TrEMBL record:
The lineage of its organism: Bacteria, Pseudomonadati, Bacteroidota, Flavobacteriia, Flavobacteriales. This is Helix-turn-helix transcriptional regulator.
Amino acid sequence: MSMTVTLIVEKTDTGFSAYSQDTAIFTTAQTVPELINNSYEAANLYYEDENVELGPGDILFEIDFKQFFKYYKVLNAKFLAEKIGMNATLLSQYVQGHKKPSSKQTKKILNGINQIGQELSGINLLQPA
């Protein structure tokens, strides 16, 4: 049986939490990688009696703009806005939660974030001599 579970990720005072709005799946962790691992463990425990095992691609992690930029402080909203051709003030309003982006705007922002991630993953830093 194939299924997808959506977990909402939030930054907390002690780290991160992830929970499902549809099931009783929830977990916490101090770091995002730990949260991801704990999420798979919690989801598989929840579905254990149904003999369902979830792996990569079966859990969709969702995080709102404000939470995303709160955690990934290295990603500057002004830089991202310039990169994707969006008004920096508008993106800032999305980040602060004052406005909610349309699905088209959300896709544009996500594509920009993914593009930056691909660019960064292709860079090798020179070691100091």
